[in-house]
Amino acid sequence: MSATEKSCFLVNVAKDSVFILIQGKATFLNASTFKQFIDNALDKKQYHFVIDFENCTGMDSTFLGIIAYLGLQIKSIKGPSVLIVRNLNKRNNELFHNLGLHNFITTEDSLLTEDAQPNKFTELEEAKKFEAIDVLKAHQNLVLASKNNASIFKDVINILENKLAQD
């Protein structure tokens, strides 16, 4: 982001989820607008927040106070709710931890363990089994839809049932 570009928050709002990408500095200059957006989302019962700080070049205490406010609101909600902050750079991570926000706001780093690293993906081991189950059920549904389909899909159903029985 060049020095002439304005700081902003990019948002993607789903039914009950809010994804926010911080662009530039997050300070008292834009904290009020951000707080109003948060209150509006909470009023609409949107209780799942992910805030991405990858493009955040700095935060001040006012903005961190708004993040704390959101974290406390999420914590007090009865029922499913979450606030996850991700991609904090070194300085923003230090601010976040020094102010104790990590005690009640989930960070991406806290979700990761040695066994679950973000860049170590492997193929889902049971994918082929699940695929066979889904294909089998799809053909069984066709038979349920019309008994005439039983003779058409008999061989496919037998092959898939045998394959699943072997696994």
Task: Describe the protein in words.
The protein has about 170 residues and is an alpha/beta fold. The chain is about 50% helix and about 20% strand. The chain has a 5-stranded mixed β-sheet. Helix 1 runs parallel beside helix 2 and helix 5 (about 125-145) runs antiparallel to helix 6. About 15% of the residues are buried. The chain has helices at about 30-45, 60-75, 90-100, 110, 125-145, 150-165; strands spanning about 10-15, 15-25, 50-60, 80-85, 105. It contains 6 helices and 5 strands. It is elongated and about 70 Å long.
The whole-angstrom Rg is 24 Å
* Poorly predicted runs: none
Q: How far apart are the first and last residues' alpha carbons, in Å? A: 53 Å
Strand order of the largest sheet: 1-2-3-4-5
What series of H and E elements makes up the topology?
EEHEHEHEHHH
Largest sheet: 5 strands, mixed
Indicate the proportion of strand residues. 15-25%
